[in-house]
Amino acid sequence: AHRGGGGPAGRAGGAAPTWVQVGNETRTGLLWPEGDATRHMDNYARFVDSGYGAVKQVFPDAIVIVHVDNCHDNATFRWNFDGLKAHGARFDMIGVSSYPTTAKNHTWQSATAACLANLNDMVHRYGKPVILSEVGVPWDHPDGKAVIADLIAKARAVDGGMARGVFYWEPEAYDWKGYPMGAFDRGGKPTAIMDAFLER
Predict the structure, then answer these.
(1) What is the DSSP string of 7-31?
(2) Closest by alpha carbon to 181, among 136, 143, 149, 142?
(3) Distance separating alpha carbons of residues 152 and 140, to the nearest angstrom
(4) Are 66 and 37 in contact (CB under 8 A)?
(5) Which of the two ends of the chain, N or C, has the fewest CB atoms closer than 10 A to its terminal CB?
(6) Quick one: fold of 22-197?
(7) How far is CA 29 from CA 16, 20, 87, 90, in A?
(8) What dihedral angle (degrees, nearest 10) is formed by the CA atoms of 136, 138, 141, 147?
(9) pLDDT tens digit string along 97-137?
(10) Where are the domains of the chain?
């Protein structure tokens, strides 16, 4: 891109990103079929590392994130990041997605507890900070605010203060094309879910 902070024009204008994700929810890799991590972990790692190098070439201070979904699934996170590490891929931070109300075989409470355990494992296993790149609940969920407040509390509880933030995806998507996980109602107004971000 050549606008904003995304490329040479942004850099020339003094804009620079704080974080850059290489891929999005790359649980099973990226750039399939070559980067299918279940069959070609070496290629997946090479693609991630190439992205890392490209980011640092343009924005040396940007923090490069690898982002995997299903925060409650520690085994998949270990498999993914062990594979990246074994093949020499560089990354600065681990991003996670957590949608606790849709986590299979979990209550939302057990999903957020498992997410915290996974975040702590990532911090200790790889020595990297973590970030909740995506969180969400159905806009009309009766416990919506409590779920998000709990995820924010879990981020604050990560060992050593190693969680860097919590981002809702996507709050203003008020049942847009049937997507129910926004935090605005069908009239386009914020629900109580957003209030979770106001509390300290």
Answers:
(1) SHHHHHTT---SEEESSSS-TTBSS
(2) 136
(3) 19
(4) no
(5) C
(6) TIM Barrel (3.20.20)
(7) 27, 17, 13, 15
(8) -10
(9) 999 999 999 999 999 999 999 999 999 999 999 999 999 99
(10) 22-197
